[in-house]
Amino acid sequence: MSRYDGAGDDRGREALDRRIDRELRGQMLPTWELVWRGVDLLRSLPEGGHVPERWAYNRRLFAEYATYLEEDSRPQARRDHTVGAARRLARMEETMARYDAERAFCRAWTRPLAGAWSSTPRPAPGSPHSSNAPRAISQPPATSS
Predict the structure, then answer these.
(1) 68 falls in which pLDDT band (50, 70, 90)?
(2) Are 50 and 102 in contact (CB under 8 A)?
């Protein structure tokens, strides 16, 4: 950059311009291509079951805010009033409960799959291949990613 600033004529700046462009392209293009590859992979995934509900919720919040702006058009206060704060807290708690439920469902659904790939198969208690004595069956620890 200091060479660019110090270039005296337009030809020198154009040459440095091309070099900077080439260097930046070499650094940024692989990442840019990976980002779009990731976007394509995400687009190929099926839609989650909770997506319509989440979109409806987000549209409702947006519509409520748009209505507020049309009817009142005052800027939002720095601090919520008591009723507004209670509503906001309830909305945040509802969102957190929904998120926790989705995460619990995902963990419950993937835990058996993780166990199937990371543990040694053993006969189920009470099956003809097991002894009469009950024994513990180890399960892999739950992990979150």
Answers:
(1) confident
(2) yes
Span 111-129, pLDDT tens digits: 665 555 565 666 666 655 5
User: CA dist 144 to 47, 104, 108, 110, 111, Å?
Assistant: 21, 10, 11, 10, 10
CA 87, CA 68: separation in Å to the nearest integer?
A: 15
Decide: helix, strand or coil at residue 87.
helix
Longest Cα–Cα distance of the chain, Å, equals: 91
Q: Collect all residues with Cβ–Cβ distance below 8 Å to 50 and sequence separation of at least 6.
A: 102
The mean of the pLDDT values for the chain is 78
Q: How far is CA 130 from CA 25, 58, 119, in A?
A: 63, 53, 17
Give per-residue pLDDT as tens, 22-58. Answer: 989 999 999 999 999 999 999 998 888 888 888 998 8
User: What is the rounded CA–CA span in Å between residue 95 and residue 17?
Assistant: 49
Using left for φ > 0, alpha for ψ between -120 and 50, and beta otherwise, residue 47 falls in beta
